[in-house]
Fold this sequence. Notes:
Elements: E1 4-14, E2 28-37, E3 40-45, H1 47-53, E4 58-69, E5 71-77, H2 91-103, H3 109-125, E6 128-134, H4 139-151, E7 156-159, E8 161-162, H5 175-189, E9 195-201, H6 209-221, E10 226-231, H7 235-244, H8 251-256, E11 265-269, H9 275-284, E12 287-290, H10 292-297, H11 305-310, E13 314-317, H12 329-342, H13 349-363, E14 381-384, H14 390-397, H15 402-412, E15 418-423, E16 426-427
Parallel strand pairs: 1-4, 5-6, 6-7, 7-9, 8-9, 9-10, 10-11, 11-12, 12-13
Antiparallel strand pairs: 1-2, 2-3, 4-14, 14-15, 15-16
Helix pairs in contact: 3-4, 4-5, 5-6, 12-13, 12-15, 14-15
This protein binds zinc ion.
Amino acid sequence: xxxxxxxxxxxxxxxxxxxxxxxxxxxxxxxxxxxxxxxxxxxxxxxxxxxxxxxxxxxxxxxxxxxxxxxxxxxxxxxxxxxxxxxxxxxxxxxxxxxxxxxxxxxxxxxxxxxxxxxxxxxxxxxxxxxxxxxxxxxxxxxxxxxxxxxxxxxxxxxxxxxxxxxxxxxxxxxxxxxxxxxxxxxxxxxxxxxxxxxxxxxxxxxxxxxxxxxxxxxxxxxxxxxxxxxxxxxxxxxxxxxxxxxxxxxxxxxxxxxxxxxxxxxxxxxxxxxxxxxxxxxxxxxxxxxxxxxxxxxxxxxxxxxxxxxxxxxxxxxxxxxxxxxxxxxxxxxxxxxxxxxxxxxxxxxxxxxxxxxxxxxxxxxxxxxxxxxxxxxxxxxxxxxxxxxxxxxxxxxxxxxxxxxxxxxxxxxxxxxxxxxxxxxx
Length: 428
Ligand SMILES: [Zn+2]
């Protein structure tokens, strides 16, 4: 049957978290092949076992390429695709100078369609099969990215960004229109095919208390939606939040008091957290999303990966396009490694690959569907060439084991390392 395929190579799966236990690599398992049928993983293991499972399957032999779950990017702004790598500003000025003028253009559906498709082309070329994206205040921007993903059979999460203050004319909604537009988009897109909706207040400075309250009410009505926002990215921003919400105990409290703290909540950045915030985030099982290229590019600070993992936080990894400086999760893993080094806590290659797949999938509460290779999981796969450039090839040739070889690709690899991408069991 044409719908049966066996991919042969070094197939990587995770049996647990490499942040728990003695040695990170022990959480990883290597197999010879993965069998795919009707968009799902039918089995993973020895090649002969996969052949016995699917005797008539087409075999695609990838030699010693690494085959793993497609990358999951847990926090992006697809409308910022065209302004990625904009020079010289910190968060608030960067939003005003670069982001807001570009986001203004997304009321035009044809422009939104163009950028949505360009964005998914770029991320797919980098091995990313699922993203969780902020859109703009325009419902058209949400329709554009969901339509593009639906056409490609891709699993994504997205939501209309809500802002009713401290943003320019043309980029502000109101508590009522934010609620109504978001509710209509949930009805149109949430759980349609592989699409999930995330209720999306941009961050406390651009939402009035009334708007945050409306978003909290919407989430209470649709508790199976995710909720995504930003938290404690820069010190100036935190001081601004304090002045806007004098009654709040801390930044997280500006969400918590309006019902915007929960297990399906995603909090981007979370760099400068106070003890109470860490405690509450952990208690709720909320997800923190680490965006390392963004944090260095905008000069925000160094996320405490090992400390937060050790206390049991749920953490995903993300590019934060276009505050982040790359569409590549390989580059993002490299930056997470570098921030770990600056903090004196380097991450193992197994931890980096896990964060970019299963960790991010768990942040999105999709770990039973994507982010790992196991029977019954959706067949979103990336095939990595571990010798994609002369520089990487000569290092990989000297590697003692798989982890040394993979680490060279993490640190120096780009879209040239992505040999093949499979989305929903189909080769892209
Ligand atoms: Zn962001």
